[in-house]
Amino acid sequence: MLTFVIRRLIASVFVLLAATFLMYNLVAFSGDPLEDLRASQAPNREQLIEARVRQLNLDVIPPLRYFIWFGGIIRGDFGVSVEGRDVNAMLAQAIGSTIQLVTIATIVAIILGLIVGITTALRQYSGYDYAVTFIAFLFFSLPIFWVAVLLKQFVAIGFNDFLERNPVVPTNVIIGIAVVSAILWSSIIPGKFRRKAITALVAGSAATITLFYMNAVDWFSVPQIGIVGVVLTGVGAAFAMTAIITGLQNRRALIAALVTAAIGVAFYFPFMTYISFFITEWWMLLALALAAVAVSVAVGYFLGGHDRGSIMRITGFTGFITAFVIALDRFMQVWPAYANSGRIRGRPIATIGSSTPNLQGSLWVEGVDIYTHLLLPTIALILISFATYTRYSRASMLEVMNQDYIRTARAKGLAERTVVVRHGFRNALIPIATIVAFDIGGLVGGAVITETVFGWTGMGQLFVNGLNRVDPNPVMAFFVVVGGLAILFNMIADIVYAILDPRIRVS
């Protein structure tokens, strides 16, 4: 493994060197970085031109100037921009915003894409499969800048108008959502007509009751999950994780998961009334989340018995979901104060920028502000990536489920859950690893358009401004980061191959 990694790193260095040399010269030859100064009427124009020439080594031809730039890269110095700003500082500021945006969008798109893609493969040629296929191709064909504009108009402006008026879902909309929910779930759940009819009735009734309850408690103005919602989520996560990983017949696993959920619920009131007020930094919240997962895994370890590994996974996921819902409820508690503050004025869903200027508040207020600004660009990126992950995961799962070893597993009498989860799902992930590796680098580069539409000060703005000013250093900083991420995640994908498929060897 070590030999493989070293060999790939050496090859990647030569690829990156050739790519950066070509990119640097393309930018350098694309225009005149002194054009703004030559058109200036300032009395010290010549001195300004001479200073910029000295600062950026413009008296050296671009092919040789590249090696001066590369010498700085070896020392960790990306140089200065045409405005005299330190590119390292510009990159540090830009990469934080872009990584925040891309990370959330990628994680959500992967999870949703895998779930929907695999379920459509298992329900091949059903109404659910046809509907998802149509939606996936629709999103895949839409240009992201157009999707972004639609989100601004109908999600942000429309929802803000809804909040300013009477934030109550009309009865006809509730009926429409209930019908769609009934059709969706009845198409997902397999079985005969009677089972589908019961599923449709339960799904439609649940949607109707939920929306009427939200109207009754003015949920859109004062959102909350509450202790009842946390209990239902924790118990639901315990049953769901047990059903997926070991099956509900494993009572030991179900009991361990329910114990984990109970521990999370027991910490609800202490966290809300006492602990949360001492959390003032993001690293504190992250440390608390890691502690929650550690305790959950420990519960699985002590209650796991002979099937300890699987039960530890169940309790770990259950504890994480329960802790996440509790933290989400804490963020919701500050929503009314945030939405009605002087900086927001009742229109909380942001259409531009990555944060609200001069907003003062606690970590929880800051978190809500980050959410409202991340919402639209994240949805835009998710919709495009979701289509890709859905199609590839569906095709991969269909191919795997038709293999001989799947038929053998069924012939041995294994439960369908075991066949799908342990034999099918793991092998279906192998080609998805390649898509994820390419998509992460593509999202960082493709976020240029999204950031421009939504006015984010991220990597996209760094790249576009550098091109407009014929400024190679910021452009190369963007290029090195994107190229480095592409190389890194492709190497990770190769390593993941060996983990997922023992037949693959990287030596």
Total strand segments = 0
For the terminal residues, how far apart are their CA atoms?
6 Å
> Roughly what percent helix?
over 70%
Largest sheet: none
- Give the mean pLDDT: 86
Structural class comes to: mainly alpha
Shape: globular
Low-confidence stretches: none
Count, helices:
20
Radius of gyration: 27 Å
What is the ordering of alpha helices and beta strands?
HHHHHHHHHHHHHHHHHHHH
Strand content: under 5%
Explain the overall architecture:
This protein has helices spanning 2-28, 35-38, 45-56, 62-74, 87-122, 127-141, 144-164, 171-188, 193-216, 226-245, 251-266, 268-273, 282-303, 308-333, 335-339, 363-401, 404-411, 416-454, 459-468, 472-500. With 507 residues, it is mainly α. The chain has a domain at 168-217. 32% of the residues are buried.
Brief synopsis:
With 507 residues, the protein is mainly α.
